[in-house]
Amino acid sequence: MQIAIVLFDRFTALDAVGPYEILSRTPGAETVFVAERTGPVHDDTGSLALVAEKTLAEVPSPDVVIVPGGPGQSDQMDNDALLGWLRSADAATAWTTSVCTGSLLLAAAGLLTGRRAASHWLALETLEEFGAEPTGERVVLDGKYVTAAGVSSGIDMGLTLLGRIAGDDVARSVQLLTEYDPQPPYDSGSPEKAPAALVEEWRARSRHSTR
Asked: Which residues form the DJ-1/PfpI domain (predicted)?
């Protein structure tokens, strides 16, 4: 099994690293970071880079595709090289997945039309504009498409997918060994729970805002 994690300039690191940390432990699987060009690709802070070891062209038919989000996603929405690769790779995948606003790239490629999908809460309206049915769920499965909400939910998506691929006991073991047992000091991880003033502030500042 080959798992391809897509990189592009100004991706959000945890969107890629969260699923990588979980799914790279899939028995018998090869995990590879891919981009239009090989070499380091910087995240949205500019201070961290992951290395794309292979180009998109060198990985034409992976079994699993993972598309992260991040501020750089906006610049990729009309990137024919990436969107074309997503469409062609999807023809052969067992699973096509995304984290955060990575689902907007899947939607722009025409892969989520008529499907239920998750994204960052600030991007749900944009997701709907591309013909998907946005939900506020943390992880959404619709056929072979698995989409996750914002950033940290990529870990949940990875565990969900690992359970489907390798079985519940393998997924439980990885959860145990990574000690994934969230106990956040604040209960403001969704717009339904966060203070309303904060939600409105970030809506106004969002690149997805139509206001």
From this structure: 2-162
User: By three-state DSSP, how is residue 163 classified?
Assistant: helix
Asked if pLDDT for residue 86 goes beyond 90, the answer is yes
For residue 70 the two structure tokens come to 């991040």
- Residues 6 or more apart whose Cβ sits within 8 Å of residue 53: 32, 33, 34, 38
Q: What is the pTM of this model?
A: 0.96
Cα–chain center distance at 162: 15
Q: Count CB neighbours of 195 within 10 A.
A: 9
Give CA–CA dist 170/168, Å, rounded: 5
Q: Which domains does the chain have, with CATH numbers?
A: 2-183 (3.40.50.880)
Angle at 12 between CA 179 and CA 152, to 5 degrees: 35
For residue 167, give the amino acid letter.
Answer: G
Q: How far apart are CA 59 and CA 100, in angstroms?
A: 23
